[in-house]
Amino acid sequence: MIRLENIRRSFISDDVETTALAGINLHVASGEFLAIMGPSGCGKSTLLNTLGTVDRPTAGHYWFGDRDLAALDEARLARFRAEMLGFVFQSFNLIDELTIEENIELGLVYRKDRHRDGRGDRKTRVAEAMDRVGISHRARHFPHQLSGGQQQRAAIARAVVGDPRLILADEPTGNLDTENGTQVMDILTSLNAEGATIVMVTHSPSHADYAARRIDMLDGSIVASVSRAI
Amino acid sequence: MNRFALLTLYRSLTRHRLYALLNIGGLALGLAVFLVLGLYVRFETSYEKWLPHHQQIYLVQTDWHMENSPFNGAYPNTMGGLLDELKQDFPSLTGTRIEPVPFTVIRNGIGVSEDGARVDSDFSKVFDLQMVQGSLASALAAPANVLIDETVAQKYFGATNPVGQTMTLRVNGEQGSYRVAGVFKTLPKATDLVFSILVPLPPHANEDNWHHWGSTSLYTYLRFATPAAAHTFEAKLDDFADRHGKADIGEHASKTLQLRLLPIARRHLTPAGMQAASAKQTVVTLGIVGTLALLIAIVNYINLATARAGLRAREVAMRKVLGASRAVLVRQFIGEAILMAAIAGLISLAMAELGLPLVNAAGGLSLAIPYSLAVPALAVLVVLVGIGAGFYPAVLLSRFPAASVLSSSRAPGGGQAGSRAREILVIFQFALAIAFVIGTLVLGAQIAHVRNADLGFKRDGLIIVRSLAETESQRGKLMTAFEKLPMIRSVTLGGSNAGGSGNNNADNVPLPGQPGPGPSLRWISVGKAFFSTYGAHLIAGRVFDDEHGSDDSTHRGRNDTRNIVINRQAVAVLGFASPQAAVGQIVGKGNPRKIIGVIDDMRFFSPRVPMDATYYLYSPRTQGFAVATLRYSGDLRTAMAAVKRVWQQIAPEIPFDAASADQRLDELYKADDNAAHLFTIGAVLAVLIGCVGLWGLASFNTARRIKEIGIRKTLGASSFDVVKLLVRQFLRPVLIANLFAWPLAWLALRRWLAGFDDAITLSPLYFLAATMLALLIAVLTVITQSLRAARTAPAWALRHE
């Protein structure tokens, strides 16, 4: 489903060029659960952001199906994200001013097809997504009224409410205790079992073990790719 | 804006109430100042625009270009017979004259003064006044007809139909019976056409000065189909003046006296004659103040919105991740700004409505909000302000890189975004604020200077009686009766009096041994005890007295030497080395005048009119004088009541018109006083809006630096060090702002002061004081938050995000 060809990303500041991605070649199959590991600063998050099209590569090709995303303009990329991707972050990134239900519904409002969905349909989808992550009883609460684990479950609900083809998770358990971390991983695993493609960045080897394949990065390159024995 | 954007905005405003208050409140205040001063500018620029076909009506100006004359300039009035002479040469011309003369309505032997004018029968061809009853054209055809406005009709006839009724009027001293032939709608406030009664202009052909070129007695208006026609006609006026003015003015009369056409709508703001352009300057200045106050409020919005941008970075990034494009986000943020501006707009209407009575009182105005016009105008303004204020924050916010914002656990942007732009905007705000403060100080100082300046006479204890014009037969009796009143110390008559009442006369005084007509001097005819009543300062020689029979100039022929007293200005103008040197000298060649004394300049006129070189002639009789001056002791009200009682006993049919010299002089200062009040209100509010913004900005910046403060304190910084750090951050832009404020204020104020004959000097102290005040305001604005931040426990601060 995804093919990265020689993706490079470098940052230039004060005449110093820092290479975050040094020619990444990667293939992610549809329905795959991929974990990315590596020390801080190795380029994991940059790779994930590139996959999420919130960061543009300096060079290389990013094929999503048969489309080269590197060639799309900003507005088309925004549409692509709205329709194809779901994001989960370490720090949840819920909007403080919106309730949990509204935060999750926000996952649908920027979709091009939103006008076809009546608000009733949207409400149903939001309710289903909340049910899926067990957060329905907190629908009317604001993010700051929830625990970290609940916030992350809400963030996952927001990521999946639009039935994305790819879920990108950036250290989704990084801010959670063990119990909440396990709950989040269980949800991701069941989403994957239902057919979702997931790419997850993590520092935790045990959480990486939930994935079918793990790649290790160092200094902007993939240094190992290990598939879990089934 | 979608529902979520609205919800986010609403909840953000209710959660951050202070921010909402500062931003919407500041914007509302800015809009209110703009609205009120806009109303003022609209009123001042709307004069005569209510007249149908006002674009076709032109006022004929008499523009004097005399050598060394104090009276040069374009006056709005002309000689009485000008229109007759114009029609001889241009028979198809459409025009009318308006001659404002004293009008008294007499009922039961008591006279009541009214604003009235005599007009040509062609008046209706130029001025299409709206009639309530009767026809304008036919009403002016019969000489004994009178037209009154609704107010006068109501006042004298109440519910009775006024048309056909008789009124006894004293018009310019002549009493007669008039039949009310029509009622016109009372003229609106925005007009210089001051009349509520109109009667037909009688034939004047035989009167003195009616055809004397150089005299000015009434207003002549002409109507042309197009501006081009008016322009073509105006081009012919120089030749016309040369042909007709030759006898009175000499060859090439148009070089001395030019006739010009002024569109009637421009009359109000065009300075008349020697006046400085104060009215126009005031309107422009206050328009600028209103616009700048709004601009400062917009700057506040931009500052606060960009300062808060860091707090919203995560929201922006998340919306981007969820598929919002930059265009969508820009639209959202501009939409927010328009919404905030709309709320501010509503509040500003309420503020303007509440503030208008105060502004009207301070500015001597009677403004009201015309809602049918103000609401749509405000709606347009709200959209413009919203776009103006929202655009930069929208672009800045929508530019946040989603990837780095979302992967960082720190408050993204951290308020750094646009910090340079914010500093520039604070400099801009404070430059204006400091310039406003300097302006307020200088305006106040100049107004106080004008009020307290030595006018060359004792201004308190004087009553000026202006209603003497129509009392030819009773004048002597009145003066004797005034003199007998116990509180009256002395009485006098003068051709020109404190507050500008009386006549303007000037003539050239040829100097011995020098060619040419000599300098032009103002001359004032004065009665008995004029200088002693006014308390003039004698510098050299003596003033007039009856013991010197030769002082009386009444019956002297043109070639006889007349004794004159001159003022200090005249000493230099006439070329004498000192006042003492002037005494005893004879000037004026064929019309010789002997200088018997020199007095200090007596300023009777507006402080904006240059002090003229003047000479005084003595006439101990009462003829020819229209104004009396009385010096009283004790309480003004008692003295005024006694004077009025005497008046009503001797001349009950003539309305009594008197005021103290202070009151008369106040009228000369009123325009500047009012302008200064309005400027001060606008300036103080503009500074306040700036402070609101600075306070908001300081609170965000302080919050942003809490962690830094924690680190500094951990490293040993004292609370004082922290306060110093935070306050200094704001003093820098305020200090830089002075670099712009000082020259700006200097240029503007130098121009304003140039309009005064006796202006204060632009001392650097005003500038320093304004700077100190701005620094003080800035420190007071940020100090509370800095102190609170400085006192926070380092451990808490370090955990703070």
Describe the protein's topology.
The complex is a heterodimer of chains A (230) and B (801).
Chain A: E1 2-13, E2 16-28, E3 33-37, H1 44-51, E4 59-64, E5 67-68, H2 74-84, E6 85-89, H3 100-109, H4 119-133, H5 148-160, E7 166-170, H6 178-193, E8 197-201, H7 205-208, E9 213-218, E10 221-227
Parallel strand pairs in A: 3-8, 3-9, 6-7, 7-8
Antiparallel strand pairs in A: 1-2, 1-4, 4-5, 9-10
Helix pairs in contact in A: 3-4, 3-5, 4-5, 5-6
Chain B: H1 3-15, H2 17-44, E1 57-64, E2 73-75, H3 82-89, E3 94-100, E4 103-107, E5 110-114, E6 116-119, H4 123-126, E7 131-133, H5 136-139, E8 145-149, H6 150-157, E9 166-171, E10 174-184, E11 197-200, E12 219-223, H7 227-235, H8 237-249, H9 253-256, E13 257-263, H10 278-307, H11 309-321, H12 326-363, H13 371-398, H14 402-407, H15 419-452, E14 462-465, H16 475-484, E15 488-493, E16 506-508, E17 520-526, H17 530-534, E18 538-541, E19 562-567, H18 568-573, H19 579-582, E20 586-587, E21 593-599, E22 614-618, E23 628-632, H20 636-650, E24 658-660, H21 661-704, H22 706-714, H23 719-753, H24 764-791, H25 794-799
Parallel strand pairs in B: 6-11, 8-10, 17-22, 19-21
Antiparallel strand pairs in B: 1-2, 1-12, 1-13, 3-6, 3-12, 4-5, 4-9, 7-10, 8-11, 9-10, 14-23, 14-24, 15-23, 16-17, 18-21, 19-22, 20-21
Characterise the protein shown here.
The complex is a heterodimer of chains A (230) and B (801). Chain A is α/β, with parallel strands linked by helices. Chain A has a single domain, classed as P-loop containing nucleotide triphosphate hydrolases (Rossmann fold). In chain A, 33% of the residues lie in helices and 29% in strands. Chain A contains seven helices and ten strands. Chain A is globular and about 50 Å long. Chain B is an alpha+beta fold and 801 residues long. Chain B folds into three domains: 339 residues, no CATH class; 213 residues, no CATH class; 145 residues, no CATH class. Helix content of chain B is 50%, strand content 16%. Chain B contains 25 helices and 24 strands. In chain B, the strands form three sheets. In chain B, strands 1, 2, 3, 4, 5, 6, 7, 8, 9, 10, 11, 12 and 13 form a 13-stranded mixed β-sheet that branches. In chain B, strands 16, 17, 18, 19, 20, 21 and 22 form a seven-stranded mixed β-sheet that branches. A four-stranded antiparallel β-sheet of chain B has the order 15-23-14-24. In chain B, helix 2 crosses helix 12, helix 2 packs antiparallel against helix 21 and helix 16 packs antiparallel against helix 20. The relative contact order of chain B is 0.12. Classes of the chains: A alpha/beta (230), B alpha+beta (801). Chain B: InterPro entries: ABC3_permease_C (IPR003838), MacB_PCD (IPR025857), Macrolide_Exporter_MacB (IPR050250). Chain B: It is a multi-pass membrane protein.
